Amino acid sequence: MFKKTLLAVALGGTIVASAQAGQVEVMHWWTSGGEAKSIAVLKGMVEDAGHTWKDFAVAGGGGENAMTVLRSRAVSGNAPASAQIKGLEIQEWGDLGFLADLTPVAEAQNWETVLPSVVSDVMKHEGKYVAAPVNVHRVNWMWANKSVFDDNGLEVPTSLKELWKVSDTLKAKGITPIAHGGQPWQDTTTFESIVLSLGGADFFAKAFVEHDVKTLESKTMKTAFDEFRKVKGYIDKGAPGRDWNVATSMVIKGEAAMQFMGDWAKGEFTAANKKPGVDYYCVPFPGTDGEFTFNIDSLAMFKQNNAENEKAQMKMAELVVSPKFQETFNLNKGSIPVRLDQDMSPFDACALAAMDTFKSTAKSGKGLVPSMAHGMSTTSAIGGAIADVVTDFFNSDMTSDEAVLKLSRAIRANQ
Ligand code: BGC
User: Fold this and answer.
1) DSSP structural state of residue 100
2) By CB distance 3.0 to 4.6 Å, which of 1, 70, 131, 180 could disulfide with 235?
3) Atom 4 in ligand 1: which residue has the minimum CA distance?
4) Residues 259, 265: Cα–Cα separation, whole Å
5) Do 221 and 312 form a contact (C-beta atoms < 8 A)?
């Protein structure tokens, strides 16, 4: 400490700044090109505030690997100061007593007023803020390479019927219609958009929030499985196991025409210097215009036993909700800011469209649904059980009659 103080004085820093310096270790899975640029923004801001950043990145889209590592760290009494934990998992960690109370920061920054309740509700455990909201991602997007569509005289599909027609045309020309990564979370990401397209928001909520047996075993759900299987006819042989950002780069390069993915995919287009409307199209997943499947990223804070590190952690929570961070991070990440009062003028047409639909669906209470594939509507156990059925169906000759029964049973078994 003495040496540190001397160094601070030598560098023109103040003794106070040095005494307050702490370290925040942050666990996340933001490792793709666009994701890494985004998290670097937070690292820079934490360091500018005089604290040390310890990066704890665990690669793997969707965060399954990260959650496994986090559990083992926490069990051995060595949890990081902060971790990217989302949705209902925040409640699971809160119930176990691991999370810190962020009320002082939330009050000072007026989170109750600046955040929409759909965001703030997810951040609280037993009425107390325990996580800082980073962004809102929209999951029900489709990304399309503009030249591929223009050169082939094709219009971007707006319904499932049009989607299969366009895909047939592209396939006949030897172009891979759909870039897909065959990993369970990517399968469920596509599947949930198909469910939303066919059944609408109320049906989606009945199935994935309420877990209503009739809805899960309905004809519409059976059709959703049938439509999902059609995707298989339009992907390339390299799809199994492929990472989502590799699939995005196929669309960026024109090696495939479309990808179904949340708007973290836009972060990859942005990192590659591509512009919406010029190089690519961002459109709602066919048949889901005016609907919004939300996936909110958040950094949950773990209880600390070192006062300086706790100060650094609280400072980071404050920075996350600041307008400056919300702007720079979300421009890189592809998502929209969490603040209702955010100046949206630096954002592109995709983000403006997302914000518009987010606000209008939140206001009307119609069309806004929590993502099942990204842990917003169900516990990790139920989410995992659904993913097993969806992926198993996609990769086998299971009938859709069998699939709906398996789905409904898997959910009940994990309730
Ligand atoms: C997260 C995103 C992330 C994506 C791919 C999602 O579950 O919410 O922030 O970019 O997974 O890793």
Assistant:
1) P
2) 180
3) 62
4) 9
5) no
The pLDDT tens digits of the residues spanning 265-281 come to 999 999 999 999 999 99
Between the CA of 30 and the centroid of ligand 1 the distance, in Å, is 7
DSSP 12: T
* Sequence-separated (6 or more) residues with CB below 8 Å from residue 69: 27, 58
User: Residue 141's closest CA among 295, 261, 290, 270?
Assistant: 261
Amino acid at 91: Q
Write out the two tokens for 317. 């929570």
Tokens of 16: 């106070």
Task: With CA atoms as reference, report the closest residue to 264 among 28, 27, 65.
Answer: 28
Residue 297 — φ and ψ, nearest 5°?
-85, 145
Per-residue pLDDT tens for 144-192?
999 999 999 999 999 999 999 999 999 999 999 999 999 999 999 999 9
State if pTM tops 0.90: yes
Q: How far apart are CA 113 and CA 340, in angstroms?
A: 8
pLDDT score, position 13: 37
pLDDT above 70 for 65: yes
**Which residue's CA is the nearest one to ligand 1's atom 1?**
62
C-alpha 57: how far from chain center: 16
d(CA 308, CA 300): 18
Query: Separation of 257 CA from ligand 1 center, angstroms?
Result: 22
User: What's the rounded Cα separation, in Å, for the pair 73 and 76?
Assistant: 5
Task: List pLDDT tens digits, range 3-48.
Answer: 343 334 334 333 344 446 999 999 999 999 999 999 999 999 999 9
Angle among Cα 111, 114, 120 to the nearest 5 degrees reads: 55
CA distance 121 to 54: 29
CA distance linking residue 280 with residue 277, whole number of Å: 6
117 CA distance to ligand 1 middle (Å) = 21
Q: Please indicate whether residue 34, judged by its CB atom, sits closer than 6 Å to ligand 1.
A: no
CA dist list (Å): 284 to 97, 261, 349, 377, 384: 39, 10, 13, 20, 26
Q: Is the CB of 37 under 6 A from ligand 1?
A: no
